[in-house]
Amino acid sequence: MNLGLGTAALGRPQYINIRQNDVDNSDLEQFRKESFQVLEDAYNAGIRYFDTAPGYGLAEELVYDWLKTKDDNSIEIGTKWGYTYTANFDANATVHEVKEHSLAKLNEQWNFSKQLLPYLKVYQIHSATLETGVLENQEVLNQLAFLKKEYNLQIGVTTTGTNQVEVIKKALNIKVDNNQLFDIFQVTYNFLEQSLIEIVDELQQQNKRIIIKEALANGRVFSNKNYVHYQEMYRSLENLSKKYNVGIDAIALKFCEQTIPKSTILSGASNTKQLKENLKLNDFKLSNNDINLLTSFKTDAEHYWSERKNLAWN
Ligand SMILES: NC(=O)c1ccc[n+]([C@@H]2O[C@H](COP(=O)([O-])OP(=O)(O)OC[C@H]3O[C@@H](n4cnc5c(N)ncnc54)[C@H](OP(=O)(O)O)[C@@H]3O)[C@@H](O)[C@H]2O)c1
User: Fold this and answer.
1) Is 243 inside any structural domain?
2) How many Å apart are CA 281 and CA 246, to the nearest integer?
3) Span 222-240, average pLDDT
4) How far apart, in whole angstroms, are the C-alpha atoms of residue 142 and residue 132?
5) What domain count does the chain have?
6) What's the CA gap between 2 and 262, in Å, rounded?
7) Residue 281 CA, distance from chain mean position
8) Which residues span the domain enclosing 147?
9) What are the φ and ψ backbone dihedral angles of 98, each rounded to 5 degrees?
10) Which ligand 1 atom sits closest to the C-alpha of 18?
11) Which of 21, 214, 256, 275 to mutate to test the pocket of ligand 1 (most atoms within 8 A of CB)?
12) What is the pLDDT of residues 6-55, one digit of tens each?
């Protein structure tokens, strides 16, 4: 199973994407219950990799509570540090999250996340950028190297934005005590944003693990009349969806799976219905011609990320 489950939409009632339907997540207890059920349904469907973060509202706590009901060492949890959730489940919050890549933040968030051990296998810098200087912060790098050794973790970075490849290259070169620090790279990749291709061979040659996020381009893969420039693409996607008898989500996920072999692709499903649709990627294979067609939808990274910036929390 190459599909993992991301918990961003399960921990925060409001999320950055294009929502197809208005959601009423005002009853937090109900929201939490439903999110718990999505974890359980994913597990029952064979998913074993779960991605979370302290920045995802109640997600880490939810995963922690859910793990208490499990006794299965094939479960792998990946979490991150660096973002603090600040919206307090208020749909009208002006600031939803705050980024801080300091040693103090790492220590504070590790203090909670370590409770996810022994299921916790992957620990990542959440959205490593050149601007925060985190990849040059020796005390942070030393602490990550310490955690890696002490708890047998895979250490990773997650990347976002136009210079993902540059950040990955920089991270690949980081050594602590002569050992490469980073084993795992969580990257945005989908048929609209294909920058990863430039570095994928290098990552695979170095035996690095690739986790793909935002495979549905935050909902931009779904037909939407506001994106005039994607109308032709939407028509082609409809045709593929009919041809393979699956939703556009499964087409988009399958594209990632077939073009980045051996990667883990995160489902960002916010409910079980979406999860089940996402899981249909296991039922078919795209032809080479169809892969080529999807590859041709690639956009310029600047354009992709400026469009991403304009998405609202909703
Ligand atoms: N490290 C980072 O910086 C970072 C950043 C982003 C994400 N992530 C991780 O990656 C995971 C996946 O990314 P993502 O959720 O941001 O992006 P995504 O997978 O591109 O988009 C997810 C959204 O697509 C919609 N969706 C999913 N399946 C659908 C279906 N069958 N039909 C219609 N809509 C469907 C849902 O929107 P609605 O909820 O509106 O229905 C869902 O919230 C996250 O959960 C998180 O764990 C990490």
Assistant:
1) yes
2) 8
3) 93
4) 17
5) 1
6) 7
7) 17
8) 3-309
9) -130, 135
10) 40
11) 214
12) 999 999 876 666 656 656 667 888 889 999 999 999 999 999 999 999 99
